[in-house]
Structures are given as C-alpha cells and as structure tokens.
Write a structure and sequence with these properties.
alpha/beta; 5 helices; 5 strands; globular
Length: 148
C-alpha cells in the first residue's frame, strides 16, 4: 500500500510577470525540492498544463493575457474539484475573491515568502491527510469485503 507521506505532490504556478514567476519558482524549488513544479505565463497555458499533469495545487495570478486566473480556475475546478487553489493578487479583499468558493487561499502581492511557504505547507498537509483518509477507506472496504 502506498505511503501517504510519500505521495508525489505537484504545484502549477501561473504568472504573466516572468521575472516574478522565475523568482517564486526558484524559491519554491529550493524550499520544496520534492515538489513537482510546473509554470505557465497565462491562463490558457496553465489550463493546458493542468490537463496534462493534473497537479493537486494551482497557484495563480488573476490578471493575465489570453485567459485570466479566475476563468482558468473555474475550468480547473470543473475538471478536478479537489484541486487546491491559491490566488496571488494585489488585493485579497476584492469582492470577486471574497465571494468565490473555488479559492482556498489568497496571498497578497508583493509576496511575503513566509506566508507563501506557510500556505504551501498547509496545502501539502491537506493533500497528505486526504491521501491517508483514502488509504484508510480502502483498507476498511477491503476488510468488509473479506480481502486483505
């Protein structure tokens, strides 16, 4: 049976400011070397990467060319509702964010890396807990069915 603590966790970061994206990507990669990290520069590319890799965490800017973050996240949640969504925005108190039930976390710009790392750690812990619960359900069903 797979070990939930060894669950491969992946994150898609979507940001149109390439300098910011590269800096954040490098910091995440250094802090979480086992995290599979994908990046895209707009919502359409992000959605394409999501469909290909199905990462558990999506971290995105809001205002981007081609497809904005809110539209991308809506499509992602339709494909995989359990995806954890982290919005990176200038204003986390904006009405369109406060009323959006598909957003799990919001990190204000400029990014405070302590907050970023805390949010990522919370996401990882949530994914591992869900994986553990899934394994327990499989064991319970197997026992009910009389299989080991």
């Amino acid at each position: 049976m797979p070990d939930p603590d060894r669950t491969k966790i992946s994150l898609l970061y979507v940001e149109d400011d390439l300098i910011s994206m590269d800096l954040v990507r490098q910091l995440i990669a250094m802090k979480y070397p086992s995290l599979e990290l994908y990046t895209a520069e707009n919502g359409r590319s992000g959605l394409d990467l999501f469909r290909e890799w199905m990462p558990q965490i999506v971290m995105t800017d809001i205002k981007m060319p081609i497809m904005d973050g809110v539209s991308m996240v809506s499509e992602i949640k339709a494909l995989r509702p359990e995806t954890i969504v982290v919005i990176v925005a200038a204003n986390c108190d904006a009405d369109y964010l406060l009323n959006d039930s598909v957003i799990d976390f919001c990190i204000a710009k400029p990014i405070d890396y302590r907050i970023l790392f805390t949010v990522i750690e919370n996401c990882i812990a949530s994914i591992k807990e869900s994986s553990r619960q899934g394994e327990q359900q499989i064991v319970a069903i197997s026992m009910v069915l009389g299989k080991d």
